[in-house]
Amino acid sequence: MTTILVTGGTGTLGRLVAERLRADGHEVRVLSRHSRPYAVDLREGGEGLDAAVAGVDTIVHCATSPKGDEQAAANLIRAARGAGVAHFVYISIVGVDRVPFRYYQSKLAVERLVGESGLGWTVLRATQFHDLLVMMLQSLSKLPVLFLPAGVRDQPVEVAEVADRLAGLAAGAPAGRVADMGGPEVRTLESLARAYLKAAGRRRAVVKVPLWGAAYRGFRDGGHLTPGRAIGTGSFEEYLGRRFGGGQVREGSGRSRA
Fold it and tell me: How far apart are CA 127 and CA 189, in angstroms?
């Protein structure tokens, strides 16, 4: 039986990865800032991290944060080397080497740390999860008008499918950079936003706004897409159906249509 440590194991992806690995008979340790007995802030490292990785065969690194990912990865890699971990699996994002977005640049830097770690490693890049896209649209729709960056498309993927792929990779041998994983369709942000509004029962005008900057150009040019690897099967509408059901209005009374 393999002992596998899942960082970020209480998050959207990490929780599902841990469940799948346990179902396959592996001993799974969940590391997060607040999950006992392995409550560790990876950005700080320390004795708690060393204890968490002791005796571990494989690490699946799902933990991420808007700031501090590089330091967290460096601390985790140091502990992994000290513990003799055989396999380090990292989940990254499609386009981190093509879109000069700050968070993407941090993910790319972590990929490099993993590749230069001296450990056996595997890196999987996936497109954005349905959950994250809905979180963004919920935030944008707080105003009476939903503003979207003009000319941008997306290729959202079902997080459960990414978890299945990641768990399978963790159970195997180090494979280096594996093929990207994208959702089943490349869609305009407008079409995705209108699908969300309909499912959530919200009325909003949708306005496309041209932006500026290198990161925007990268997204507009599709650097974050992988149409040749559209291997996910779960659609955005299927996800919305599970999440919102019949689209009951949650603001005011009665029903609404997009």
Answer: 14
User: What are the extents of the domains in the chain?
Assistant: 3-127+159-177
pTM over 0.90: yes
How do residues 3-61 score in pLDDT, each as one tens digit? 999 999 999 999 999 999 999 999 999 999 988 999 999 999 878 999 999 999 999 99
Tokens of 101: 């977005």
Architecture category of domain 3-127+159-177 in CATH:
3-Layer(aba) Sandwich (3.40)
Nearest CA-CA partner of 154 in 217, 227, 81 = 227
State the Cα–Cα distance between residues 240 and 131, nearest whole angstrom: 9
Encoded tokens for 188: 């305009």
Report yes or no: 224 and 92 within 8 Å, Cβ to Cβ.
no
Cβ–Cβ under 8 Å, residues 220 and 151: yes
Where would I find the H helices in the chain?
Answer: 12-23, 47-53, 69-83, 102-115, 130-140, 159-171, 189-200, 214-220, 236-244
